[in-house]
Design goal:
36% of the residues lie in helices and 18% in strands. With 154 residues, the chain is an alpha/beta fold. It has a 5-stranded mixed β-sheet with strand order 1-3-2-4-5, with helices on both faces. Helix 1 (10-19) runs parallel beside helix 3. The longest helix is centred in the middle third of the chain and has 18 residues, at 53-70. It starts with 9 loop residues before the first helix and ends in a 24-residue tail after the last helix.
Length: 154
Amino acid sequence: MIEIDIEAPVLLAQLVSKHKAQWLDFDKIEPWLTQQQGDWVLLFAGDPVRFPESNDVAVVLPELQRACAANGRAFGIAVAVPESAEALAKKFGSQRWPTLMFFRSGQYVTTVCGMHDWIDYLSLVNQALDTPIGRAPTIGIPVVSSTASSSQCQ
C-alpha cells in the first residue's frame, strides 16, 4: 500500500481513508500485481470536472463491495492516483472514464465502464467477478523466442 499524501478529489480520498482502499500509481502497479491475492477492483476515476460520473462511482463502489461480500464475492479496492491514472489506464488499454478494472491474483480480468443503475451495476460487477482471467485490451505484439527456428519477420 502506498503510504503517502495524495492530492485527490474528496470522494476518492475517502475511499482510501474510510473504506481501506489502496492508492496505486504507475511505479507501484507491478509490485501490487505480484502481491495480489483474490479479486480486486482498480478505480480509474479521472477528473471529476470532466467526468462527473467519477464521483458517483466513488460513492457506489463501497456499496457494491459490501453487497458482493454479503454474497460471498469479496473484493478489495484500489484507486489510481490522479497524477498517474492516465498512464496506468493506457498500460491496460482503458480509454473510458470512470472505469472499474478487475484483477484476480494479479491478472487482468475485465472492465466495467461508466455509471449504471444499481441493479445493472450489481449484475455487471457479479458478471465481472465470474469472468475468467483474460488479457487486457492493449495493442498486442506477439512475443517470439529468440531461439525460435524461424522468424515471421521479413
